[in-house]
Amino acid sequence: MSPSATTNGTPNATNGVNGHTQKLGFEKFYNVINNELTTTSKTRHNINPATTKPNAEVPVSTQEDVDRAVAAARAAFKPWSKVPLEERGQKLRDYADAIDSYTDDFAKLLTTEQGKPIAQSVQEIGMATSWLRAFSTMSLPEDVVEDSEDRQVINRYTPLGVAAGIVPWNYPILLMCGKVAPALYTGNTIIIKPSPYTPYSDLKLAELGMQFFPPGVLQALSGEEDLGPMFTTHPDIDKISFTGSTATGKKVMAASAATLKRVTLELGGNDPAIICDDADIEAIIPKIAIVSFLCTSQICMMIKRLYVHSKIYPRFVEAFCNHVKANFKVGPGTDPDNFIGPVQNRMQYEKVKDMYAQIAKQGWKTAMGGEMPDEDTSKGFFFQPTVIDNPPDDSRIVTEEPFGPILPILKWEDEDEVIRRANDSKMGLGASVWSTDLERATRMAKQLEAGSVWVNSHFEVAPGVSFGGHKWSGIGTEWGVNGLKSYCNSQSLWLKKKV
Questions:
Q1: Are 371 and 333 in contact (CB under 8 A)?
Q2: What is the dihedral of CA 443, 448, 449, 454, to 10 degrees?
Q3: How distant, in Å, are the alpha carbons of 84, 91, 173 from that of 130?
Q4: Fewer CB within 10 Å, N or C, the chain?
Q5: In DSSP terms, which residues pair with 489 in a beta bridge?
Q6: Are strands 189-193 and 162-166 parallel, antiparallel or unpaired?
Q7: Of 312, 402, 415, residue with least CA distance to 359
Q8: How far apart are the first and last CA of the chain?
Q9: What's the predicted TM-score (pTM) here?
Q10: pLDDT tens digit string along 98-132?
Q11: Is 330's pLDDT higher than 50?
Q12: What tens digit of pLDDT does each residue of 419-428 get?
């Protein structure tokens, strides 16, 4: 993460829509401001988490860069908002097609910067382009609230203006596209701020967007930790869409208050999954294992607390651990046989390492794994998947989100008790119930305090379904019609028929 101070020349400006006709290169990385590729006098680089070797240099944006991007976005807003909805949708579809044509390049880049296995990178790109296409055909209907002889009252939605999307490091391509699509489709302009840990894919996505969107409509700036506050305090940004930790989300909300920005926050989770005594163990374990360890468990909606009924607890734990050992190989994402890659960055590595250290300090019993990682991090930020066997409810592994491949499995007996325990968290992003009795599972699921609740699945998402958290897991929702509305002002239009 340490920046490196180098001086790069600014590349030639690129013309607007359809002006950038050269094949997209994946060796050099620039800010995109007003459809020009720009850099900065100071640059920095991130590292490949599988090797800790440096990646390419990226710009370190300043307040001047932010001001230029915001001014361009403001100038582009009115003309873009007047482009017919179908035409805006078509541009998003064309953009999705172009991303698909570079799937191999983006997948290699994503694995290099994020660490996830190449198959998971390909899957993320496919999800991102399907999100772009799905949003491009959604409708945001005007509702006729009243229609009488005297008047008609219509509830309609108008774009906010300039949006900023602050993207995290775990799913940078999907979550960037998940902000770009609703913002642009509803007539806003947007500036993307990638995570300092994974700037490369998002900068390249914005560069590709120059072929499809007018100057100022889609821009991206990379930088260090001080770049986010430049966005949240800027008086000419109307909306912040933030995905990240709860602690940072609170800072985003506080900073945005001075200018009364609209804010959507998708924050951390500590998802419980409840396994009932009638569950089909052999059928569900492969599914539960994936949604516990996918992306090295660095997804806010992964299962973080697994509650298993005491009647099946020993069989379940044994079968679960055997499945993980047999199927989830750990190693660099470039090896197609690996399922669990490295933790993405050194900061998160140290946090996860501290959680592993608690095994010995707190006397937790492990059903699998638990070994401390190799002290030589030049080999990458890797951990072996670990299962903690029935730890106390007040232990850190239960109350905190580790964001790494370490999972507590806990016993339960009484239905009301396990629902209380599952809800006993400040987080409320996702939750699930697993049972062959659909009526029972549905009854339990409806009592769980989370923005997304599943029965016999977990971490199912779709572009047409609203996604957000309860409690400290977020404010507002993204995706679906509600996601479109989050980039709009609500307007009541009163039409008097007789003067």
A1: no
A2: -90
A3: 22, 14, 12
A4: C
A5: 158
A6: parallel
A7: 402
A8: 66
A9: 0.94
A10: 999 999 999 999 999 999 999 999 999 999 999 99
A11: yes
A12: 999 999 999 9
What digits encode the pLDDT tens for the residues 369-381?
999 998 888 889 9
What are the backbone angles phi and psi of residue 262, rounded to the nearest 5°?
Answer: -70, 140
Structure tokens at 239: 């909306």
Is residue 10 predicted with pLDDT exceeding 80?
no
- Distance from CA of residue 318 to its chain's centroid? 32
Q: Which amino acid is at 69?
A: A
Q: How many CB atoms lie within 10 A of CB 113?
A: 26
Q: 123 with 471: CB under 8 angstroms? A: no
Alpha helices (H) along 193-245: 200-209, 227-232
CA atoms of 71 and 216, how far apart (whole Å) = 8
Phi first, then psi: what are they for 388, rounded to 5°? -95, 125
Higher pLDDT, 159 or 16: 159
Considering the chain, what is the average pLDDT of its residues?
95
DSSP string computed for 408-446 = EEEEE--HHHHHHHHH-SSEESEEEEE-S-HHHHHHHHT
Q: How many CB atoms lie within 10 A of CB 434?
A: 27
Give the pLDDT confidence score for residue 361 in this predicted structure: 97
> Helix, strand, or coil here: 356?
helix
**Catalytic residue list:** 266, 300
DSSP 15-50: -STTT--SPPPSS---EEETTEEE--SSEEEEE-TT
Q: What confidence tens digit (pLDDT) does each residue in 413-462 have?
A: 999 999 999 999 999 999 999 999 999 999 999 999 999 999 999 999 99
Residues of the chain with pLDDT > 90, as a percent, come to 94
What secondary structure, in 3-state letters, does 48-66 show?
A: CCCCCCEEEEEECCCHHHH
| Strand duo 427-428 + 470-471: pairing | antiparallel
Separation of alpha carbons 318 and 325, rounded Å = 11
CB neighbour class for 8 (10 Å; exposed up to 12, middle 13-18, buried from 19): middle
Both tokens assigned to 211: 């072929």
